[in-house]
Amino acid sequence: MINFEFYNPTKVIFGKDTEKQVGNEIKSLGYNKVLIHFGGGGKYLIKSGLLDRVHKSLEDAGIQYIDLGGVVPNPRLQLAKEGVELCKKEGVDFILAIGGGSAIDSAKAIAYGIANDFDLEDLYTGKVTTDKCAPVGCISTIAASGSETSNSSVITIEKGMLKRSYNHDCARPKFAIMNPELTYTLPPYQTASGGADIMMHTMERYFTNIDHVELTDRISEGLLVCVRENLVKALKNPNDYNARAELMWAGSISHNGLTGTGRVSDFACHKIEHELGGMFDVAHGAGLCAIWGSWARYVYKVNTPRFAQFAVNVMGCEMNFHDLEETALKGIEAMEDFFHSIGMPISLTELGINPTEEQLEELAEKCVATGNGTIGFFQKLGKDDVLKIYQAAR
Description:
By secondary structure, this protein is an alpha/beta fold. The protein is 51% helix and 12% strand.
């Protein structure tokens, strides 16, 4: 186990009707005017009455607010820039995101823009760094990204369609309101894609070459099994409160840093998928499913016992003590079978895209450019490695 720091200051307010507490929560923090940031035109928020409940809660607490919709999956930099200008014009001092990772990440980008003078594009392309961010809070409506308690923000830059991230603890939300009932109406595909994203956030940390992280391993394995089981329940019965609650809580724990304590995380799959999301605008969790098996088969020999442990403790495979490689490969296959069982793709073709060889070359080049020529820690991957993974995933 390596040295680590674990920092998770976000206050979690979990359960039924908790969105009604948002006004008093913001008032208790001493803020006066809120930008409410959400996806599209807020059709779901209006139809469900959620936006009205949030408005009323703010009004009852004496908090002023303005609305800004328009967030799309793989949120765009331009909308974040528009949000910054609107906030400065209106004197906004708090950003409230309602939605999933896209709305929360876009809200974080706006918050960075309010607190700093640089061009937001420079932040997400690595030209500048900062430890300053305006305060953010969120009301989650999907169990997926974990952005409600994480330090991460991912934005798509329209010029070149680059999907890039910036991670800093200053962007962790002040509070996260999580009402599992708000996830009942999610389409099955989004529920499954979100569940896969939750699992991948922990798997990116689980596949490590750091020894003696037993407690973190058990936490990770328990979370993965819990998500696998409850995702099936939620897909079978969308109004299963207990299953939805398990998924929502797991989403936050999976990406708040806990399952990475004491070891070095990898996140190569995320970087590989981010390029697909930038070029083809695919659902993030589904994109991860489409490339994970190809990545796993490319790297598993680096630490075959780790993949065998995953196969047995997470996927329920039988250990072959005479052939760990066979066990490892069965675990990868079992994971792909699970993805199929919840309607997720395990190839780029099943994802609905068919990149040309030239596009794959471009994807691989952009991918490793974010890491100065390599990505990953479980196994360092250069451009040729990433290209082979993309090719295998077709």
